[in-house]
Design goal:
- By secondary structure, this protein is α/β, with parallel strands linked by helices.
- It folds into three domains: about 1-95, Multidrug-efflux Transporter Regulator, Chain: A, Domain 2 (Orthogonal Bundle), CATH 1.10.1660.10; about 100-175, Orthogonal Bundle (Methyltransferase, Methionine Synthase (B12-binding Domains), Chain A, domain 1); about 180-300, Rossmann fold (3-Layer(aba) Sandwich).
- The chain is about 55% helix and about 10% strand.
- It has 14 helices and seven strands.
- It has a five-stranded parallel beta sheet with strand order 4-3-5-6-7, with helices on both faces. It has a two-stranded antiparallel ribbon with strand order 1-2.
- Helix 7 packs across helix 9 (about 130-150).
- The protein is elongated.
Length: about 300
């Protein structure tokens, strides 16, 4: 078992490097032959395997190239000089790509300390909203691609996702102690059998950061259970993310049921985000169901301030 874990943490194929770094396998091979930039080991069948040091170096090289450096110049730099150039880019541009790469490395190597170190560096100069929107969201989009191509495992995804959730919880707790400008009429939940809660956790944080209180119900809440909250508040604004559920075959029936039981005879409304709402964007049958394809759209409709700066 230990050998398997170490292989996942420390050894990569050239295809893994291509997917994670964006540098084509053919280009990596040329750089190895011409400039000796990476030093892979070989298996008994002559297959290249790259360790974490090679992985980190390639991420840095990719970032330098993105910032205008020529590969011939990079090839003449020592590892220390490469890292110094990366630091200079960070100072000049506060490049989010550098932070994303650092979180990638943390994820690949299951390095919790690196995650905290990187996060603590960014939070000194950027708001938590900025970090989520400009670093965590792009990171999670890349993670989805990496997972689909087999470059990372479910363990990697759970590791980094839970660390991000932890940070949302910490910052949400801080906000929950501040005075609010409205009553608890925002009710955030995920529909039954929906467990992808990262986005709804952040939206809960963001509403709190705008001075409003919330009722956060979390994962997999049946419509029947939502009815119990009708006695607590008037004019409830339900908010949900449809990432996987309800699926395209069930979404119309789900919303018909939601309208009948939770939106009729009152002033309640439902705001929806997530991939599944694309199945209904051209056929909105419900008067008080709002579809949002970005947080900025939601902000423009309900809040008169910027999401982040």
């Amino acid at each position: 078992m230990d050998a398997v874990i170490n292989a996942v943490k420390n050894s990569f194929t050239i295809k893994n490097l291509e997917t994670i770094s964006g540098i084509k396998s053919h280009t990596i091979r040329i750089w190895e032959k011409r400039y000796k930039l990476l030093q892979p080991k070989r298996t008994s069948t002559n297959i290249r395997r790259y360790d974490l040091d090679n992985f980190k170096k390639l991420l840095n090289i990719a970032l330098l190239i993105k910032n205008g450096y020529k590969i011939s110049k990079i090839a003449n730099l020592s590892l220390h000089e490469i890292e110094n150039n990366i630091k200079e880019i960070t100072i000049k541009e506060n490049s989010e790509t550098i932070y994303i790469n650092s979180f990638k490395l943390s994820m690949i190597s299951f390095d919790t300390s690196l995650f905290y170190k990187t996060f603590n560096e960014i939070i000194k100069i950027k708001s938590f909203e900025f970090i989520y929107m400009n670093v965590f969201l792009p990171l999670m989009k890349e993670l989805g691609i990496l997972w689909q191509t087999g470059s990372v495992s479910a363990s990697h995804e759970h590791f980094i996702t839970n660390l991000i959730k932890q940070k949302i919880h910490v910052h949400t707790e801080i906000l929950s102690k501040t005075e609010k400008i409205s009553k608890s009429n925002f009710v955030l939940f995920l529909p039954e059998n929906e467990f992808h809660e990262l986005s709804i956790l952040f939206l809960n944080y963001w509403i709190l950061s705008n001075g409003h209180s919330t009722i956060f119900l979390g994962q997999s809440i049946p419509n029947a259970d939502l009815m119990t909250i009708l006695n607590k508040n008037e004019n409830i604004h339900f908010i949900s993310f449809f990432t996987v559920e309800p699926n395209k075959d069930d979404i119309f029936n789900y919303l018909n049921d939601f309208e009948d039981n939770l939106l009729k005879g009152n002033q309640n409304q439902l705001s929806l985000f997530g991939p599944q709402i694309f199945h209904i964007k051209d056929d909105i049958r419900w008067e008080r169901v709002n579809l949002f394809f970005s947080l900025d759209e939601f902000k423009d409709k309900f809040f008169n301030k910027k999401v982040y700066s």
